[in-house]
Design goal:
This is Bifunctional chorismate mutase/prephenate dehydratase. It catalyses: chorismate = prephenate; prephenate + H(+) = 3-phenylpyruvate + CO2 + H2O. By secondary structure, the chain is α/β, with parallel strands linked by helices. Helix content is about 40%, strand content about 25%. The protein contains 12 helices and 15 strands. The strands form 3 sheets. Strands 1, 2, 3, 4, 5 and 11 form a 6-stranded mixed β-sheet that branches. A 5-stranded mixed β-sheet has the order 8-7-9-6-10. The longest helix is centred in the N-terminal third of the chain and has 38 residues. It is globular, with a radius of gyration of 24 Å. The mean pLDDT is about 95. It binds the ligand C=C(O[C@@H]1C=C(C(=O)O)C=C[C@H]1O)C(=O)O. The site of the ligand C=C(O[C@@H]1C=C(C(=O)O)C=C[C@H]1O)C(=O)O has 11 residues, from helix 1, helix 2 and helix 3.
């Protein structure tokens, strides 16, 4: 085959890819129109039976064209997710017009290349308007910016699949005057990054935020005791240190390393192959969440000092048929041995049944505070394979 033939084939591929994009954009517009029907008829945004039927039909047709089921499933699950999340985002925007402006300021930990920045870009990608980023040095700084009205939103990591709950953030939420308005999950792919030409054997010091150190503990143990670990305020500052100090490395994402001029010495450092962090998005005022979309409510409560009081409180959720997805206990700062509980519920406080459950919960607790009611971002795929 000649070079000219190759170029001609590549032109054909380019054309097909452009056509695919045009069709995807058209599909998205039609999906937006379907939303109008759901709003008028008060129907849930998601229709899993329709998705299931659609995927089965596509897989069968795709097979006749020589495409395998796994490939078709992967491609269309992504298209469906986009379609559903976009409808949800549009609906939420129409419900909360006051919270929409041409530009919005978001405070997150670190700066260019931090994992928080990746999560911020992912979460706000569906939102029109100009994103103004405010890099912060600590979690308190983030909530402070939101409380003072210097940021419209703050992004805080709350849990990680390798290292568990991020206690500092839970403790901060006890007193911060902010409301949770959203969540986003970001996959975290830790790499060891160093200046070009530095080899693993040359490294004497590794810089990282405490979270990546915890999430990559097994890899770090394997390197032996001769390498010093220095904790940094954020992944961005760890990268800067690796840039400034010879024979050192930092833990961060490959993208962040590339951006700043560091190369990947080793990838896949996390203890768990599937390493994800869930972030919460906070704002000064709570948002209204449509009952047509999957919703989470996060609350904080202190139970009474009586036998069975936690069990009694949790029974309220069971009796009202409310699914609890997380229960976390944290000490009360300044009151040794006192505990507060963080609870995530699959519930929307706009529903009368949820309001009744929360009223009843008060009878079994010393206090209850709703930290937020927000759109659940995790979309469970329908299973066809
Ligand atoms: C577009 C719709 O809404 C959602 C998105 C779908 C899609 O993009 O094909 C299918 C079902 C729904 O979960 C619809 O209900 O038809």
């Amino acid at each position: 085959m000649t070079e000219d033939t190759l170029q001609a084939l590549r032109r054909d591929i380019n054309e097909i890819d452009s056509d695919l994009l045009v069709l995807l954009a058209k599909r998205r517009r039609i999906s937006h129109s379907v939303l109008e029907y759901k709003i008028t008829n008060n129907k849930p945004i998601r229709d899993e039976a329709r998705e299931q039927a659609l995927l089965e039909k596509l897989i069968s047709y795709g097979k006749s064209l020589g495409l395998d089921a796994y490939y078709i499933n992967n491609v269309f699950q992504l298209i469906l997710e986009d379609s559903v999340l976009n409808q949800q985002a549009l609906l939420q925007r129409s419900l909360n017009p006051d919270a929409m402006s041409d530009s919005y300021r978001v405070a997150y930990l670190g700066g260019q290349g931090s994992y928080s920045q990746l999560a911020c870009h992912k979460y706000f990608s569906r939102r029109p308007g100009k994103l103004i980023e405010i890099g912060c040095a600590s979690f308190e700084h983030i909530t402070g910016q939101v409380e003072k009205g210097q940021a419209d939103f703050g992004l805080l990591p709350i849990e990680n699949t390798s290292s568990g709950s991020i206690n500092e953030v839970f403790d901060l939420l006890q007193h911060a005057q902010v409301s949770i308005v959203g969540e986003v999950t970001q996959s975290i792919e830790h790499c060891l990054l160093a200046l070009p030409n530095v080899e693993l054997k040359d490294i004497t010091k590794i810089y990282a935020h405490p979270q990546p150190f915890a999430q990559c503990s097994r890899f770090l143990q394997g390197l032996g005791d001769n390498i010093q670990h220095e904790t940094c305020d954020s992944t961005s500052s760890a990268l800067q240190q690796a840039l400034d100090n010879p024979n050192s490395a930092a833990i961060g994402s490959a993208q962040a390393g590339k951006h700043i001029g560091l190369e990947v010495l080793k990838s896949g450092l996390a203890n768990q192959a599937e390493n994800h962090s869930r972030f919460i998005v906070v704002a000064r005022k709570a948002l209204q969440v449509s009952t047509q979309i999957p919703t989470k409510t996060t609350l904080i409560m202190a139970t009474k000092h009586q036998v069975g009081s936690l069990a009694d409180a949790l029974m309220v959720f069971k009796q009202h048929n409310i699914n609890m997805t997380k229960l976390e206990s944290r000490p009360v700062p300044g009151n040794p041995w006192e505990e507060v509980f963080y609870v995530d519920l699959q519930a929307n406080t706009a529903e009368a049944s949820v309001q009744r459950a929360l009223e009843e919960l008060k009878e079994h607790t010393q206090f209850v505070r709703i930290l937020g009611c927000y759109q659940s971002e995790t979309m469970k795929q329908v299973e066809v394979l």
